[in-house]
Amino acid sequence: MEAVWNAVKAAIKEQVPGHSYQMWIEPMKPSEGETGSLVLACPNFFSKKRVQENFGSLIESELANALGKPCDVTIIVENGNGRKPSGNGTIQLPLPDVSVRPYSGRLLRNDFTFDHFVVGGNNDFAYSASLSLAARKHSLQNSLFLLSPTGMGKSHLTQAVGHHILTQFPKERIFYMTAEDFSSEMVQAFRSDTIDKFKSKYRSECDVLLLEDLHYLSGKERTQVELAMTLDTLFEANKKIIFSSCYRPSEIPKINDKLRSRLSSSLISNIDPPNFRTRVRILKKKAAIRGFKIPEKVIHYLAAELTEDVRQLESGLIGVTAKASLLGAPIDLALAESVVKNIVRQRSNITIDSIKKLVCKYYGISVNEIVSRSRKQSLVRPRQIAMYLARLYTDSPLQAIGRSFNRYHATALYAINAIERGVRENGAIQKQVDFFRQKLDSGRT
């Protein structure tokens, strides 16, 4: 069958893009099968799934052309030494309640794997590029920059790369962290006089660097210099690197030219909001993972109403199931509508000006004061919260938000980062932000 498969591959190569052929078709090998059938071995479960969904019918058609008659095709998963993985033929994923610890940094979420990621037209390239890097398909491209607004799946894909590499190459030393983690660790190393150990850790002991939220490095010159030198070393050693951010390298203010150049040399892949069909598939996938049984009409209603991002979809799904459980009520459209009305934002009525007025009203200050050059603490915090809410609730770019508050876009980014950090670490700030979000979400401003 090997000669037949080579003929089939040649025919397929003429019909699909070159990168798709190299990624999905070329790695498959013919394996032993029953008479009159072809068994193709894929290197992992993700490849098997992708081939079946996108190229299954094409393979069967070209195989029939090559043989002059129909032929059964079976796709299996087979590891490098020719043995099938144990169990059901798929690579074992982490146990549901067990966190995965990379070599250094934060834990990898057990559900952030390629298998749990729903691929659509909005993220197909980002998914393929991430899987390619994780599977070591293309040695020429070792760094990837995932770009999208919050809640679109950057962290999911970043951690999926970590999971995949740990599964396929368990001896690889994977470091997963945010840029803020990196900066804090470096500062601590200087304070404790262990900076040489810090440098050695990242330059000599790291095989894969997963670094999120690059925009947090804005204005941190010392950290930028150290990271740029670390990246130089990793690039020269052919190590794998994934960055993620809400902003392109060219859009992040106060980044030195050397680091910006390094980031920009990565393959930059944008993740867009999912369309209706993809949102339906996301909801079904998440419901299946959690064991929820949601009627089809409720799934379609949620997908039609919750259009902003994946996190909003997940919030709707959890809200519907939680409310049904607490009330002992069936999951129907009436219940879904009651949940959605508390989630969907009245975006058309929310502007930067309306946010300013809301924040000023409850802090007892004027709009003129919040946009003034004053640095009084009684004005700085409301101003930062208003900028944060403007970024969260409007589509205005940083430059527009900054101008609206009589500030540069770098100041706006600093303010947004400060409130994001405060929401995570400071209960008082979190309560203030939650208060304003409830007002904006309910439309009662």
Question: How does this model look, in words?
Answer:
Helix 7 (195-204) runs parallel beside helix 8 (221-236), helix 10 (276-290) crosses helix 11 and helix 17 (398-404) packs across helix 18 (409-425). This protein has helices at residues 2-13, 18-25, 45-67, 124-134, 154-168, 179-191, 195-204, 221-236, 257-264, 276-290, 296-305, 310-327, 333-340, 352-363, 367-370, 377-393, 398-404, 409-425, 427-442, and strands at residues 29-31, 37-42, 72-77, 104-105, 143-147, 174-178, 208-212, 240-245, 267-270. It starts with a helix and ends with a helix. The strands form 2 sheets. A 6-stranded parallel beta sheet has the order 4-6-7-8-5-9. A 3-stranded mixed beta sheet has the order 1-2-3, with helices on one face. The chain is globular, with a radius of gyration of 25 Å. A hairpin with a 5-residue loop joins strand 1 and strand 2. The chain has 4 domains: 2-77, DnaA, N-terminal domain (GMP Synthetase, Chain A, domain 3, 2-Layer Sandwich); 104-270, P-loop containing nucleotide triphosphate hydrolases (Rossmann fold, 3-Layer(aba) Sandwich), CATH 3.40.50.300; 276-340, Helicase, Ruva Protein, domain 3 (Orthogonal Bundle); 347-442, DnaA protein, C-terminal DNA-binding domain (Chromosomal Replication Initiator Protein Dnaa, Chain: A). It has 445 residues and is α/β, with parallel strands linked by helices.
